[in-house]
Amino acid sequence: MALGSCCSQILWIKQQLRDFGIKDSCTEIKCDNTSAINLTKNLILHLRAKHIEIQHHFIRDHVQNGEVSIQFIDSKNQLADIFTKHLEKSQFELIHSRLNIVKSEEVQTQG
């Protein structure tokens, strides 16, 4: 579900950029769900995947067109987790440092 929503939002942003004359190449989406990734890359629809919702076909079409690419990222390196999950302090600090978020006290002393 999240992958489909992310893909549609990226495509909307890409269209806005095209309207302003900015062309963008393939956009990479990082996902930790290997099943969802495999469904977007599989060109053959198997009987076991018959129940898949339309959004997976939507994503697969845009992957085939080269507008987006879906790449695997393991759960420990998923930066979005800081916004969606309760994390242990060490994991929170690791993701926080990777996002280059500056504490408000640091901004005041730097400014």
**What series of H and E elements makes up the topology?**
HEHHEHHH
Query: Roughly how many Å is the radius of gyration?
Result: 18 Å
Q: Tell me the quaternary state.
A: single chain
Unreliably modeled segments: none
Morphology: globular
Number of domains: 2
Arithmetic mean of pLDDT: 79
The biggest beta sheet, please? 2 strands, parallel
Strand content: 5-15%
Structural class by sheet pairing and helices: mainly alpha
Q: How many DSSP helices?
A: 6
The total beta strand count reads 2
Main-sheet strand order equals: 1-2
- End-to-end distance: 41 Å
Classify the helix fraction into a percent range.
Answer: 40-55%
Keywords:
single chain; 111 residues; mainly alpha; 2 domains; two-stranded parallel ribbon; 2 strands; globular
Summarize the structure.
The chain is mainly alpha-helical and 111 residues long. It has 6 helices and 2 strands.
Description:
- By secondary structure, the protein is mainly alpha-helical.
- The protein folds into 2 domains: 1-73, no CATH class; 75-111, no CATH class.
- The protein has 6 helices and 2 strands; from the N terminus they run αβααβααα.
- The protein has helices spanning 2-19, 34-41, 54-64, 81-84, 89-98, 104-110, and strands spanning 27-31, 68-72.
- A two-stranded parallel ribbon has the order 1-2.
- The longest helix is centred in the first third of the chain and has 18 residues, at 2-19.
- The termini are far apart.
